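thought: fold this chain, then report.
action: predict
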Amino acid sequence: MEELNFILDRRSIRKYSDQKIDNQTITTLLHASMYAPSAVNRQPWHFVVIDRREMLDRIMEIHPHARMLQSASHAVVVCGDELLQHDDGYWVVDCGAATQNLLLAANVLGLGSCWVGLHPREGRKAAVSELLGLPPHVQPFALVALGYPMESKPRPERFHRDKVKHNSWDTPYYLD
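observation:
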């Protein structure tokens, strides 16, 4: 199971060094994000890369749980385009997959990251949309803080056998 460590060891990191992430690494992260699956391969995502300190500070004023941006090198706002989605609501699922790819790629590249939710909080979405100048058909989904980690966290136990069923809700799946 060692080959899955990049998934199992990913943690939400909220403390970063003052080292800046270079543009090539940011491009690599975005590249990985865009390889996420999407309904009917519509790829309804857009990404806003933020590295200006005043923008990061403004987001901290907007979002009560974005304090980690104080030391982050960058943030990426993952957005969903309602005009590109397969059908109503699919942009949310597709952007979730793109966000997960971004988080996993950051971990593989030795970066720390933290998913800060925007959707479905309409007030937060409206404030971020205004700050970024998003068109009405583009919805902010998540903000991902990025930086070189100044903390590490151990792997918790998250596998729970009682959450796995076999062919029906009433039958537990017996795992080895």
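thought: worth noting. Residues 71 and 151 are 12 Å apart (CA to CA).
final: tokens above.
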